[in-house]
Design brief:
Immunoglobulin-like, Arrestin-like_N, mainly beta, Arrestin-like_C, Ig_E-set, Blast:Arrestin domain-containing protein 3, seven-stranded mixed beta sheet
Length: 431
């Protein structure tokens, strides 16, 4: 029978906010004695980027084609704690508890074509003979972004544009466009209400319609072989309307854009940076180039109270304590959810191509793991992580210190009557 490893976490789902503490227990069952150099718990929080570019060069009058690989890596957190030393690991059941504090500036998990930010807990059996066994539990980590601490996001976004059909001296009248969005920041699940005013002062042309899109812009920064950046512009949501605006006429059009399950806007210095914008384009028709302009917006994890669809219930959704306590420094503290309604998390949408990590252990891949993000359906509070007293895993568990060489938590041999709590996530492998 192969070895079996399960992970019991103090949250129902493997989702945590930056600044929280991950409490849990690893359950290992082996059917025979194992000669090991050591057994240790490894926690990693990293970002990786990689992409290839096809290039040409000339040498001795000959053109050569080659591929250059750009890559980068950034470590946010790494702890390695030994739970069993060199010797024979006896057959049977073993339990190892852990307690891992997440820094406040941990960026949000994401998985994209040219890079990913990921967090995972591993139990590694370093065998004296043969290959090591690595049992993994991936996690979603979300950096809290409370939009209510940024008053400037309450200011409506107004963007004006002027477009002429022809060049001077044959210029027709201009097309004046004004796009208004009531707030500068939103959270996933909310709708962006917009108002669009188009004033067609042209005496010769009618407008065929317009298109409005919500776009995600991802910037990847490579460090090797030299610094270089690459970005991806992805459409998340859009609406296209064929409402014509005739010459010498004016129209005011209102609508909404739905924000899907996506990571928040990046605020920390990371090799992967995510931002968002609303792109507006007018279909000029008659072989004229479309008129385009965009408005940047912020996506957070806690919406503005003033942006609620139903303001009478705002107090039920917004945490009653600020993100950052008085005297605290650094990033936002995780909000208090004591008086908030229970929430929902949804898997990231519009994933497209996902990052292929060539360094990953192919025996125990975690490529099928999809990060999940808080969603505010009808202004609902995102799922609150359970309080620490919900699970006995959080009591009397030594904290893994962040630097290397942390002291090991006491390892305990489990009995058949051991009490399980939390949610188990398991691996089975031949050892």
């Amino acid at each position: 029978m192969p070895s079996v490893c399960t992970f019991d976490l103090d949250h129902r789902d493997p989702i945590y906010y930056s600044g929280e503490v991950i409490n849990g227990r690893i359950n290992l069952h082996t059917d025979s004695n194992k000669s090991v150099n050591e057994v240790y718990i490894l926690f990693r929080g990293e970002a990786k980027v990689s992409w290839n570019e096809h290039k040409t060069r000339t040498s001795n009058g000959k053109t050569q084609h080659y591929t250059e690989n750009y890559r980068g890596k950034q470590t946010y957190l790494r702890t390695r704690t030994q739970v069993f030393g060199s010797g024979d690991l006896p057959s049977g059941d073993h339990q190892y508890t852990f307690c891992i504090p997440l820094p406040l500036d941990c960026p949000t998990s994401c998985d994209m074509k040219y890079g990913k930010i990921f967090y995972e807990i591993s139990l590694v059996i370093d065998k004296q003979w043969g290959f090591n066994k690595d049992f993994k539990q991936p996690l979603t980590v979300i950096q809290t972004y409370n939009l209510n601490i940024s008053p400037d996001l309450l200011i409506p976004l107004v963007r004006e544009d002027v477009k002429y059909f022809c060049c001077w001296p044959c210029t027709s009248g201009p097309v004046l466009s004004t796009l208004t969005i009531p707030f500068g920041g939103y959270a996933p699940g909310q709708k962006i209400h917009y108002s669009l005013e188009i004033d067609n002062k042209s005496g010769a042309y009618d407008l065929d319609g317009f298109e409005l899109q919500l776009k995600q812009v991802s910037l990847f920064k490579a460090q090797t072989p030299h610094y270089k950046t690459r970005d991806i512009d992805k459409r998340l949501y859009g609406c296209c309307k064929g409402e014509r605006v005739l010459r010498f006429s004016k129209r005011v059009i209102s609508g909404t854009l739905l924000i899907p399950s996506v990571p928040p806007t990046t605020r920390t210095d990371s090799i992967i940076a995510i931002s968002y914008r609303v792109l507006f384009s007018i279909k000029m028709g008659d072989c004229h180039m479309d008129s385009e302009f965009d408005v940047p917006i912020v996506i957070g994890t806690i919406p503005l109270a003033q942006s609620a669809e139903d303001p009478t219930h705002v107090a039920e959704w917004i945490p009653h304590t600020p993100d950052t306590p008085a005297g605290a420094t650094g990033g936002d503290m995780p909000p208090s959810y004591e008086n908030c309604k229970p929430p929902t998390f949804e898997e990231a949408t519009n994933l497209g191509d996902r990052f292929i990590d060539t360094d990953v252990d192919e025996q125990n891949p975690t490529n099928d793991f999809i990060p999940r993000y808080p969603m505010y359906t009808n202004f609902a509070q995102p799922t609150a992580p359970p309080e620490s007293n919900e699970s006995p895993l959080s009591s009397d568990v030594p904290i893994l210190s962040l630097p290397h060489g942390a002291t090991a938590p006491p390892n305990a041999e489990s009995s058949n009557g051991a009490t399980e709590s939390g949610t188990s996530y398991g691996w089975t492998a031949n050892t």
